[in-house]
Automatic annotation (TrEMBL):
InterPro entries referenced in this protein's UniProt entry, alphabetically: ADH-like_C, ADH-like_N, ER, GroES-like_sf, NAD(P)-bd_dom_sf, Zinc_ADH-like
GO molecular function: oxidoreductase activity
Domain Enoyl reductase (ER) positions: 11-335
Protein name per its UniProtKB record: NADPH:quinone reductase
One Pfam short name: ADH_N
Signal sequence, start to end: none
PANTHER family: PTHR45033, ZINC-TYPE ALCOHOL DEHYDROGENASE-LIKE PROTEIN C1773.06C
SMART domains reported in the protein's UniProt record: PKS_ER (SM00829)
Native species: Phytopseudomonas punonensis
């Protein structure tokens, strides 16, 4: 099969095209032919060597996608060849509360991912995709979509009429925008680009703030909300923005901290505000298989469409990475297989 490996992790040029034998599905496993996969921030961080410990150079990256089962191992009875499936990138987290040990099997990081013509996945973790859902609407759910669902629905329990603040226009923020509107909430979004803000307004954002024009974007949000602030904050900016997120929080707000921004070392400020506002801060590490099933049901029932910026061919995966790393897009960057 053809695949891409992460190589020496010295930058985007580390992505290496290879040809290798097809993997084989062992007991309790399924062999899947990817159809459409999506890039996320950590895919770029991994190639740059700034996503935690360095991985084996032969690691195949990419954590989210949709594919077709082409073979099953012994004991597998929940799917069959020909089924379209997705899989959360923590395949051992099937249900229940988060456990730190789920990081031991992280698709695209500790184990081979979707950027190959074949990928082996644990059968217990895969989920059959409803026939009514297109590849483009499920390929990018395993990371950004599931993380947004976990944050908004499972943890923060967003309510109708509440204000959800999303930082930036990345995959998690756009997924959160869609889900928040679905649950009757209002949405505020920040960006450095007026053009991007125009796009998110068309997608349903109620409040938009250009943080280049308003460096103190928390104060701007307060001004636009009669000094009330946001009830739920999807904090994807990292340590450098957490202080303003706390400042932008309403009383009894819930802040969902998502993702890692390498190189940031800012202390967490506004300690007293956490107490005075009764703010809850919660780290979000993706979601379980059960959550993913619920997300798929919501996607199908409400015809939620993924916002897509551009789709590349599998052979052009390096160009897809470069396009994603430039951070000029609004929406997902996808890679399709023949």
């Amino acid at each position: 099969m053809k695949a891409f490996q992460i190589g020496n992790q010295q930058g985007l040029d580390s992505l290496t095209a290879i040809t290798c034998p097809d993997p084989v599905a062992g007991p309790g496993e399924v062999l899947v032919a990817p159809r459409l996969v999506g890039l996320i921030s950590r895919d770029v961080q991994l190639l740059r060597g700034v996503y935690g410990a360095r991985q084996a150079p032969e690691r195949i990256p990419v954590s989210e996608g949709v594919g077709e089962v082409i073979a099953i191992g012994a004991g597998v009875d929940n799917v069959k060849p020909g089924d379209r499936v997705v899989c959360g990138h923590f395949p051992s987290w099937l249900d229940g509360d988060f456990r730190p040990d789920v990081f031991a099997h992280d698709i695209g990081i500790s184990h081979n991912g979707w950027l190959a013509e074949r990928v082996v996945l644990p059968a217990a973790a895969v989920i059959q995709v409803p026939a009514s859902l297109a590849d483009r609407d499920v390929a990018a759910l395993a990371s950004a979509g599931l993380t947004a669902w976990s944050a908004l629905v499972e943890v923060c329990k967003v309510k109708p009429g509440e204000l959800v603040l999303c930082l930036g226009t990345g995959g998690v923020s756009l997924a959160a925008l869609k889900l928040a509107k679905l649950r009757g909430a209002r949405v505020a979004i920040t960006s450095s680009s007026d053009e991007k803000l125009q796009i998110v307004r068309e997608l349903g954002a109620d409040i938009t703030i250009n943080y280049r024009k308003h460096a103190d974007w928390a104060a701007q949000l307060m001004a636009l909300t009669d000094n009330v602030g946001a009830d739920v904050i999807i904090e994807t900016g990292g340590q450098d923005t957490l202080g303003q997120s706390i400042a932008a929080a309403a009383a009894n707000a819930r802040i969902a901290v998502i993702g890692v921004t390498p190189g940031q070392q800012s202390p967490i400020p506004n300690y007293l505000s956490l107490i005075l506002k009764n703010v809850t801060i919660r780290g979000i590490a993706n979601g379980s298989r059960k959550m993913f099933i619920e997300l798929l049901r919501a996607t199908e029932a409400n015809r939620i469409e993924t916002v897509i910026s551009k789709t590349f061919k599998f052979a052009d995966a390096p160009a897809a990475y470069a396009y994603f790393a430039a951070q000029q897009q609004v929406g997902k960057v996808l890679i399709e297989f023949n």
